[in-house]
Amino acid sequence: MGALGPLLTIARKDFLLELRNRDILVSLVVFAMLVLIIFNFAIELTAVNLDALGPGILWVAIAFAGVIGLNRTFVLEKDHDALDGLMLAPVSRDTIFLGKALGSMGFILLSELVIFPVFAALFGVDILRLETLAVALLASLGLAAAGTVFGAMAVSTRSREIMLPVLFLPVISPVLIGAVEATARVASGASWSAVSQWLQIIAVFDLVFVVAGVLLFQYVLED
Amino acid sequence: MRAFPARTIWLALTAGLMGLTLWLIFIWVPTESNLGEVQRALYFHVPVAILALGAIVLVAIGSVGFLITNRPRWDWFAHASAETGVVVGALALITGSIWARPIWNVWWTWDAKLTTTLILWFIFIGYLMLRAYAPPGRQGARLAAILGVIGAIDAPIIYYAADLWRTAHPGRVTGPGADGSLESEMLLTLLVSSIAVFSAFAYMLVERYRVRKSEADVIELGRRIQMAHSEVSGPATGALKAMSKG
Amino acid sequence: MTVPGSGQAVVSAAGLQKSFGRVHVLNDLDLEIQPGESVGMLGPNGAGKTTLLRVLATLSKLDSGSVAVNGHDLIRAPEEARRTTGVVMHAPMLYQDLTARENLEFHAGMYRIADGARRIRDAAGVLGVADRLDDRVRNLSHGLQKRVALARALLHRPRLLLLDEPDAGLDQSSLAVLVSVLAAQRADGGSTLLVTHNLERSIEMCDRILMLAGGRVVADARTVDVDLPGLRASYTRLTGGA
Questions:
Q1: Tell me, what's the pLDDT at C19?
Q2: CB contact under 8 A, C95 and A10
Q3: Would you call B70 an interface residue with chain C, using a CB distance cutoff of 8 Å?
Q4: Are A104 and A144 in contact, with CB atoms under 8 Å apart?
Q5: Which residues of C touch A9 (CB under 8 A)?
Q6: Which domain holds residue B99?
Q7: What is the pLDDT averaged over residues A50-68?
Q8: Which position has the higher pLDDT, A107 or C24?
Q9: Contact A208 B157 (CB under 8 A)
Q10: What percentage of chain A reaches a pLDDT higher than 70?
Q11: Are A85 and C111 inside 8 Å of each other by CB?
């Protein structure tokens, strides 16, 4: 246990809250589905370009839905100043960061559990393979780590609905590039080495942003 | 006879250098044989592109300094660097496009350097938006500083990803780089234009920094007046007397 | 205002400065609170009372100055300071969609309290919310939410209680609970710093009264040396009332 106790307590609290109001998962999944459907009409998909375009559509949907979900988690924290209560706990700010990031990663992964099969069925792209799990795990960690820092930042600004995507999307571009390319290679049945090259980018991003979050989160929270 | 302030002399020198640079670029230097007239954009593009990347390093230095010391002057420096960075970043993107049009036959190409510059430019824009929307004072400065640090550490990852992506999609246009040796006249022109552009950048940076400092001075003056006022009207002694019995 | 023979100060603050943009909320503020002291803070709106509490609770960061709570410097050892401090601010700081018990269990987990279930039961008993523990906080009245917030603040047995207008909007029974909590805190040798706008209550509940104005302590007296009319006169003068 050790330092893990409060960290898991925070993540468990987020899941308990989610069980009550289902705010985050519902908005994540519904929004992602809508993006998938809209893209289906916006882009003429053919058997030729499907493997190339499909993964891009999938990850755009997840990134946009992620913005909405991450916004929600911090709106819930700000409600009746619950976040202040969390900050009063005798743990360091990086524990709060890791706990919130862990919870958000869980939500993103859970939503992907729904979005991936639906995408595979709607678009007929064969992504339901074991390699996809590696892509999903790494990409979700990166999105959650960066999203937790920016979500906490955006929530203390005016017009946070704008600030979160403006800050979040350019910064996570390496994750998007890596996830799209890796998924495309998984779908086309490429070798593991062709996939892992892209996973490395995401892994580097994850490492950098987990460390950055641990170091910087203390400055995000204090007013 | 009052001596000119150093800043005025600096501004005049920079303006003179700029004039000289324009003369060198458009009249003196010979046309590059392979690329033609458009290659002249390079003399401007190279220094602003270097500064656009340099600015994000400056923002990061100021940001780290502010987060560690909590001293506002580091924040003024970071903020001024970001503002100037947006300007040179925009210039780098525009001159890059002017360069790309005849050479690569497109206004834009998703080359790794251009892509990274574009994404970093959006992070700069996010930085300035954050300053506008964040709460005033040190909290806003702290939030901006976090983004300043993140932008700098993200830059190499973005470049790495964009570069790998570029090589994975060789079907798109890639053109001849500016490889090949520059002749001595071209080198001299590039040197002079770089000095002129760097000097102009530094001048803007210093001016923005001074504006930030003046704003802070005004606020500090307000605080002193507020304190002096409360001492004159002195509720302190009155309240104490009134509060105690007898 | 030091009590002779007492140990280490519970709060020891010097030269506190804090501004939000152009507004200077704390202006070179000094403060010492001794163990066992119950201190009431009065002052006009914008005097810096809430900000001072937030600084002592490590929710707000100082621009300059130094503070230690129970001997822990807030910059070097904020976690240790938080461990010895209980805080109730204006907002209940509770998750509205969790039950009162789940909120308290969450905080017991964050404080790593071993006998959490028993302490929650005890605190709920003292605060009279035992029969509402399994209601969602959203469905509790203002007064009951305040009591749960107090229970959360007391769960880890803090040496220092920071309360921002704990009496605001409370009915008689909730007030009685508050008074008994404050008495128990004093009996245990703990200290309290609370903000109130009710002058009678400040005399009743506290043994020392501070007045804040313009981000500084402008008056500081023991309650035994103060009478209500004198207090009212100086308070009215500070708040600019007629």
A1: 86
A2: no
A3: yes
A4: yes
A5: 106, 109-110
A6: 17-27+35-169+183-213
A7: 91
A8: A107
A9: yes
A10: 99
A11: no
B78 found inside a domain = yes
Q: What are the domain boundaries of chain A? A: 4-221
**B106 lies in some domain:** yes
> Which two tokens mark B179?
């490889």
CA–CA gap between residue B20 and residue A39 (Å, rounded):
53
CA distance B212 to chain C (A): 13
pTM equals: 0.90
Nearest CA in chain C to B141: C21
- Partnered with residue C32 across adjacent β-strands are C12
Weakest-pLDDT range from A179-188, B34-43, C59-68:
B34-43
Nearest to A213 by CA among A54, A64, A101, A117: A101
| Residues on chain A touching B60 (C-beta within 8 angstroms) | none
Residue A126 phi/psi, 5-degree rounding, is -85, 85
Interface predicted TM-score (ipTM) of this complex, two decimals:
0.92
Which pLDDT score is estimated for A190?
A: 87
Quick one: fold of C36-61+77-239? Rossmann fold (3.40.50)
For the segment B43-49, the average pLDDT, to the nearest whole number, is: 90
- Closest chain A residue to C95 measured between Cα atoms? A82
Q: Which residues, 6+ apart, have CB-to-CB distance to B9 below 8 Å?
A: none
How is residue A143 written in tokens? 């999105």
Asked whether the beta carbons of residue B143 and residue A220 sit closer than 8 angstroms, the reply is: yes
Instruction: Work out how many domains chain B is built from and give that number.
Output: 1
> Mean of the pLDDT values across residues C52-74?
94
Determine the pLDDT at residue B171. 56
Q: Is residue B232 part of a domain?
A: no
Q: Is residue B243 part of a domain?
A: no
Q: Are B129 and A163 in contact (CB < 8 Å)?
A: yes
